[in-house]
Structures are given as structure tokens and as C-alpha cells.
Design brief:
Elements (H helix, E strand, L loop, with lengths): L6 H11 L12 H27 L3
Amino acid sequence: MFHRKPLEERIAERVAKRPPLKEGKHFEHRPALIVFCVIMVLVALKIVGAFVLMKWGIT
């Protein structure tokens, strides 16, 4: 209708243009690393907070 390629083809072309992932690198781009770190910090804070509450006898 609009003379555009299907979404799947456009995504496949964009992925094919990317350089290969470097050896030993786990995250392709910085935002993924930041989101992962934020989630890990929140999980750690939740666990530490639960232990603190148990120590104080609140729960």
C-alpha cells in the first residue's frame, strides 16, 4: 500500500548491518547494561531491607 517493506524485512536488514558482537561483551548497547544494573540494585536493596526488618523484629 505505501510501498514499504514488511516490518520483519526492515528489522532483518538493520540487524544484518550491525557489526558482530565483540568477544567477552555481554551487552550490545549501554541502556541494556544500565537497566540490568538498576534491576540488580533494586533486588539487592529488597533482600537487604528484608533482613534488616527481620533483625529489628518488625515483620
